[in-house]
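User: Here's a chain of 969 residues. Predict its fold as tokens.
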Amino acid sequence: MQRNPFIAARFLCIVVSTVLLTLSPQVSKAQFPWSGKKLTADDYLAMVVQKIKEKDYKKAIALSYEGLENRPDYMDLHFMQGRAFMLYGNLDSARIKFKHVMTESPRYRDAYLLGTNLEIQMKNKEEARCVIDDGLYYFPFERDFMIKKIEVLDFCRDFKAADEYIEKLINVHYDDSIAMRYYFDYKFERAIYYTRLGNYAKALDCYSHILAYDPNNKAASEGRLNIEIKQGNMNEVMKQINSELVKNPRSYEFLTKKAILLSDQMHYAEALEVAEQLIKYFPGDSRARILHYEIQMASGRFYMKEDPYLVFQGILEKRPNDKEALAYIINLATAKGLHNEALVYENKAIAAYPNDQEFLKKKIGTLEYLQRYSEAALVAERLYRLNSNNREYRAQVIEYNILSGRQFLKEQEYDSAAVDFNTAIRLEPSNKEAILLLSETYLQQKKYEESLTVLDKGLNNNPDDVDYLYKRTVVLQEAGLLDLSASQAMAIQKQYPNEKRYQNLVVDVKTAHAKNLMSIDDYDGAREEYRTILRLQPNNWDALNGMINLESGTQRYDSALYYADLALLYYPDNRELLLKKSSVLESQKRYTDAYLITGNLRERYPYNSKIKQAYIEQRLASGIELNKQEKYDSALVEFNEVLAVSPRDSNALNYTCNILIEKQRYDSALNTANRGLYFYPENEQFLLKKAIILDKQNSYNEAVATADSLVRFYPTLRNIEFTDALKARAFRNEIGFMFLYSTFDSASNITRANIASIQYTRFTKWGSITGRLNMAGRNIGTGLQGEIDLNVKHGSKWYSFASGGISNEIVFPTIRLAYSLNHTFRKVYTVEAGIRYLRFDWLDVTMISGVIGLSRDWNEVWGNIRYYPIFQGNNIFHTVSSTLRMYITPSTEYVSAGFGIGNSPDEFSRNYILNENVRIRTYSFSMGYTKIFRHRNTFNVTGTWYNQALHSGYFRNQYDVLFVFLRKF
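Assistant: Prediction complete.
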């Protein structure tokens, strides 16, 4: 039962805004295409609504697409596009749009209301229920949604649920005029519907509900009167009319009805009297005069014809209990087809002669003709009680109780149906029809035990009755006792192997049992059930489909693929089966085979979002797998295909960007990152990738600006860390301060030998250059040393270190030179080869040393070992040192430990007495901690202990503590 939909508030707002835009020349000039100004999404929305108003739906759809390119997340525009699709007749596209709006904006109320109308239009009953139930989840008890729910129930012909729900509506919105109007309209339509079916009791109930809320409702009162008339309850009708005339003796309406009713009953004298009253009260009314004339004419015709029916009627007016006259007039009324009149006289006859079997039989016949089986059954029982030995009467009682029960069952009045069927069984315990119908009645009420008890009683009398066994199987299935139901179904099928009906029963029960086993994870049991079904019906859709799902779900993909191919033999080109096969192939990582299937399906169903999404996911999975195998070119082909189908796919954009960065195609990578930001403004991943790419392109200022945006939108520790590191790489200057606190003890003597340093570093594209001034105050004077360090990159794997220093010959060597060449291989190893030169003019000593080193990186651990052969004159000395770092935080915080044998020319605090120390056995051990703050401030503290065995037999210890602070700017 369809009704006019309520206009949603949002749509009203859109329409009003459109009218205003259309009427206002200033607005149109500023916002429409001919103004020369760029259109906003709101402008497109207004134009789309205008085109829909003009019924130019094709243009409305085109404009909505243009608007969505500017603002893809504008739900109002998505909604209006769906409305345009719906009006244009493209219902599948409209459904996709409404689903999109409901998914992206779950509280968009109009999408649910119009989406429900769409499903009703497409005759999708279950989908219509789902959509309106989703809407009611977000808008419970809202009037429009409750009304729409009633329309859906009405559309699904679930009248009982609709009747219950409309009572809920009026209980919630009892003071809402629209809800009340809808309630009245619904009850009126339902009353008309029941009247057409002849179910006058329910029709009267509908009118009574209306009159309960509006006692003066003219239409309801009139409807109730008409039903009473149809039922032949003339006395009741006349009572109601007279009651109304007591309230208002001059009521034109009821005086007219009384005159007509009396005329229909052939009480012409009284009818003429009422008609004359009408003329008296309404002398100028032409209708009253016409009515008076028609009654006069009917009266004249009556007395002219005077047929037997009228004669016996006249007799009964004088002698109401005349048995013969009653019998004749009942027969005449029945012959004329006046069954309601016949029933009136039958009631009068039975009132006068309660036990007259002939009158009771006549009444039973009339009630049967009027399909009032419940009343017929009661009269039949009365007749049977008068003659309980009469088998015909007994059979008649059983027949009418079964007919009455069927009628109640059809109207879902299960309790009344059960009473009638039980009456039939009481009279004939072995009546199969009554037993099966009573079982069905209990089944509909979900009273499974009662239903089985009834069937078991029937089986006690006839144990092999297949109809009882069949029904029992169905009840067991509905009760959830699927194992028992399945075994009984198999027994029936075995007894009747060629009966298709029983084979189908086995299939239905086994299918339900398999699904139940699946729900409790009994996959082996479910597998056996499906195999049994396929042995009976090799092409059974549910079994084939279930086996594919089961085998796929248990990761038995080869078996799932076998059943998918088997199903396609019976259902070639079936869309759902092809999708399932594609899914299985995807699970087997046979992505190419999978997306070949979904690609072909896309050509057949270009607007199917499910197929499109499957195709995209399979292409994407193929690209990811190729990317893991480092087949970057092939992976790019897959990702580009995804982007061709879905330009907004964030995963494809992400992976494409990563591969392009890996292949050092930075311009293309930057375009991809920008494309991602176009579709997903302020997206964290794309902002991060863009900053990384700009950094690799040495566009530090742009990289820093992008990183700042990243931190502003997503101030996580990781992003802050990245931004600080990026800014640090953009800094080209660094200043540093160092202080070495050093003490010596030998026997009872303790000597301090401290050194302070200040340095400046300039970072360049090829490396860095550092200038350093060292100062050491001693009792013999103040030592000063100037140093310059160079770090030069020769490529991605080679780099050099060079250093030179000169001093005033106090504390420090007169000249110090150093050079090392380093090579990195396998990404984690670095080898070093170099030379060191020290000159002490005041001692006239020159020392030359080689250096060979190896470093290894283990992610969180870094190690280094060096060997120095030191040449002084004709002597050669050997030194080995090692260092190990353990990173607490990657690249920014670590602890270090060192161990050495001998005296190294690179030891800052000791090289001024190296010419002496190289001859002494020395062991050293160090511990340090380094922390880099925000990638620009470095703090280090290192403690070193040296132990030397002097020639005199004594030992000397040296304790160094080095403090370092560096800052980039």
